[in-house]
Amino acid sequence: MEFVNAFRDLKLFGGAHAWITQSFIVVFTTLLIAFLQKLFLKRLSVRLTQNRFAWDDAIVDALRGPLTLLISLVGITFAAEIVATGTNTPLFGAAVPIRSVGVIIAIAWFLIRLIRAGEEKIITRSKMKGEEIDRTTADAIGKLLRISVIVTTGLVMLQTLGFSVSGVLAFGGVGGLAIGFAAKDLLANFFGGLMVYLDRPFVVGDWVRSPDRQIEGTVEKIGWRLCVIRTFDKRPLYVPNSTFATIALENPSRMSHRRIFETIGVRYDDAPVLKDILAGVRTMLAEHEEIAQDQLIMVYFNEYAASSLDFFIYCFTRTTVWSEYHRVKEDVLLKIMDIIVAHGAQVAFPTTTLDLPDGTFKEDALNKELSRAHAPSAGLTTQRA
Questions:
Q1: Which sign, positive or negative, has the C-alpha torsion 160, 163, 169, 172?
Q2: pTM to 2 decimals?
Q3: Residue 166 lies inside a defined structural domain of this protein
Q4: What is the C-alpha to C-alpha distance for residues 297 and 286, in angstroms, rounded to an integer?
């Protein structure tokens, strides 16, 4: 009976301790709404994944965490205001600015999640449709959008807390000048990375090399400060982005064809069949299925070399794959060898011919002279003795 009288004296909604009941109701309602919205968004997401639109389920997925934060933050700060009013405690007076900052953070969090989800959706849908999309550009745009959201969120939060944004920007300008001098290399790498994203001289997965530096390999990562290039011996090479503004860079991954340019020599004794050999090589290249016929094809006698009659072949393969290119090149060279052999000729190699007129030396005198030339040490020893 005493407990009932005490409960009546509490006056839940109008007594001195009514703030306890009110704050309890607010917290309970907040938790209930947060639970219901999670359940609702979960079921909604399942239904939205069944349609053909990409952005509706991305919005719902991005909304889950921020909406829970927003509901919880608003409810708890509202309960804190009730407690502050009922108890006159200054500590709970911070509920209003906390709520304002929390709402801004929740909105920024939602936008960042939406940007990331949209980026993944675009790349996934493009792969499913078989369309080519530059992942490097998509990643760069996503990073720029997220940075913009973060910077804007910071400025709005400062303005909400009572700070002068103009003063902050002015201070940031002076501070940025000092930081710029102190971190010029870092800024150079940042803008170098920005130029890589905009100009796109290469993307992740490309094979690049520089004739100016010892840089050659496959691009693994493009960052804001440096790029990671995996060399062909599987070592990671970390190249600052500012380097790409001062060097010439070659991207063999974007070549349309691969070139075969070889010089082949036959013996001088095979001069009578040289024209037939050249004609046979031209016919072979014209009929080869893996040689690009829309590109320049040349087979010409080129030089009277020291020990051979040299001709060159100049053509392009259809494939740009490194291993396939070497297979095609091997096949072309072997077929040229077969053509040379089929005409009774041989591939030349360096030789020296010694021409002695008849009767200049007798055979015995020549043999003695050659023996003396091969054993000079004994004579030298005798002279020294």
A1: negative
A2: 0.50
A3: no
A4: 8
